[in-house]
Write a structure and sequence with these properties.
The chain has 168 residues and is mostly helical. The protein has eight helices and six strands; from the N terminus they run αααββββαααβαβα. The strands form three sheets. It has a two-stranded antiparallel sheet.
Length: 168
């Protein structure tokens, strides 16, 4: 039963991630200020271990978005396919999206990918969003996501990695 309930809650969160990706891509390619970001689904305390971890650690929607972005690479890689679009002017991926090509041909999101979803091309919002992945930020401090320390340009290029202890 626990696996089924975890799967149900994760599927709802993946659907939300997909809606956020579509929302950000539409705003980016249509060069307009995005409307309100799609709302995160409500999770019930005690419904699943997954929901309990998010709620008990008081992760806000932005933290949950980053976490789902990292989880999606392994649990729902097809949800990240929109990031594989190629820039026709340069015949390569869009640098704004960050990410690295996964060995399977898929997309592995990086910190830059999270910054794109959280802030688009708004520099002030990107600077604020990078704090979501500092050493004392909830996702890192709680051991959910790990990053190697470094200068900003190195941190931005790092793949988002879910800590195995969190997954279990």
């Amino acid at each position: 039963m626990a696996v089924a309930q975890n799967a149900k809650d994760i599927e709802a969160m993946v659907a939300w991630l997909e809606a956020v990706i579509a929302w950000r891509m539409t705003a980016y390619f249509e060069d307009k200020t995005p409307e309100n970001r799609p709302s995160m689904p409500g999770l019930k305390r005690g419904a699943s271990d997954f929901a309990r971890a998010l709620l008990e650690n008081r992760l806000d929607a932005d933290d949950c978005l980053v976490l789902m972005l990292a989880l999606a690479a392994d649990l729902a890689p097809q949800s990240l396919d929109p990031f594989l679009i190629r820039n026709p002017g340069m015949d390569r991926g869009f640098s704004e999206f960050g990410g690295v090509q996964a060995g399977t041909g898929g997309f592995r999101p990086t910190v830059d990918t999270a910054l794109f979803l959280l802030a688009g091309s708004d520099i002030a919002a990107r600077l604020a969003a990078i704090s979501r992945l500092s050493d004392d930020a909830p996702l890192v401090a709680l051991g959910m996501v790990s990053l190697q320390p470094g200068v900003l340009s190195e941190i931005r290029a790092q793949p988002l990695v879910i800590e195995p202890a969190f997954v279990s």
